[in-house]
Amino acid sequence: MAVHPISVRLSRSDLARAEQAAALRWQLARAANVKDKLIDTSSAGAESDLAGIKAEIAVSKLLDVDFEATALGIDNGCDMYASAGKHEIAIQVKSCKAPSSRWMLGTPHQRLCWDVAIFVRPTEDNAVMEVYGWVGKKEYEHRVETVDLGHGEGPGIKIDHLRDIEEFWRMMNERRCA
User: What is the pTM (predicted TM-score) of this model?
Assistant: First the structure.
């Protein structure tokens, strides 16, 4: 169980990049007639993408992984890739809008092409994201439940089942140096 989340402060330029990327993603998706697959439809427009992009930037900063928020193209189900020695780890970043969220929600009909999912929550400070924990694909498949938080059903895992992000960071760096 994750008990030691790590707070990551986003810089002014990180926040500006996130806002620009959210607007760009939303505009391109609407122009291409791509419909949102979000479970929580309480926000609209670029705002629905902003939390996710901020989470992705926070994870990339914490793990020192390359990430380009404004990369164009259809999402292939992985947000970033981390070098781990002889192997590369495919990472899916999951986020939410509420600092008190107790669920890491998946996307209905999601292809699980990632190796690890990392959950990030916002904090009361707009510039600080809490990298809460992680789960491997097999553990996710074992623990996934159908969740309805008032916006429709979808897959989710209780955050109590996530592992400490420190453990993932350590594993990744030990593999990089092996």
Answer: 0.88
